[in-house]
Amino acid sequence: MNVLTDNWALYGKGLLGTVELTVYASLLALALGFVMASFRVAPVGSLRVFGTVWVTVLRNTPLTLLFFAVLLGLPRFGVVLPFQLFAVLALGCYTSAFICEAVRSGINTVPAGQGEAARSLGMTFGQTLSLVVLPQAFRSVIPPIGSTLIALAKNSAIAGSFSVTELLGTYKPLNELGYSIVWTFVWIAVGYLIVTLSISAIFNVLEKRWGVPR
């Protein structure tokens, strides 16, 4: 227990870093995921191709490799940002591919007649998607989106290897101070459990309120 009580500040800083990474990357992933899902069902061929390439490349690229590409590659092109922001970009873009596919599967559950009825009323594709299709699709994809964001929270541990403050990275200074590595990781695991259970609780509330009855 002294591993935790003697290092409240260190654990707290790491937990806060993980929460910040999770929140910011989740917002980016949700925004990009919905946009890419819209591209994938758009009537414009070039948008469909762009969305397909985005999903195919990111879903088949190891996240660690993507971190290297963002944190070490972008500065070579003159893009210099704080490491935490680079980590948010890597996590958010990677997760957006999975959000996109979840949303697209939800869009496919909406009866085609809904879109046809909207178009018969003179709605544009954007209006049909945002006002008719996506609100219905969102109800059916709440659980998979929640699972994807829980995975994002756990994937944020990779950021610690790139000088970003997060929970897993606390084991390094604690190990140097001679604390038990077993109990160090036990309390790190408890921290991740708090984060993932919080996300799960939020999405359980959303599912009960707006989810499709099963």
From TrEMBL:
Pfam families in UniProt: BPD_transp_1
Membrane topology, from the record: Multi-pass membrane protein
Key words, A-Z: Amino-acid transport, Cell membrane, Membrane, Transmembrane, Transmembrane helix, Transport
Domain of life: Bacteria
Annotated TM spans: 21-42, 49-74, 80-100, 181-206
InterPro entries per the UniProt record, alphabetical: AA_ABC_transptr_permease_3TM, ArtM/GltK/GlnP/TcyL/YhdX-like, MetI-like, MetI-like_sf
Compartmental location: Cell membrane
Chain ranges of the ABC transmembrane type-1 domain: 15-203
Signal peptide: none
Coiled coil (UniProt feature): none
NCBIfam families: HEQRo_perm_3TM (TIGR01726)
Family: Belongs to the binding-protein-dependent transport system permease family. HisMQ subfamily.
Protein name, UniProt field: Amino acid ABC transporter permease
Originating species: Streptomyces roseoverticillatus
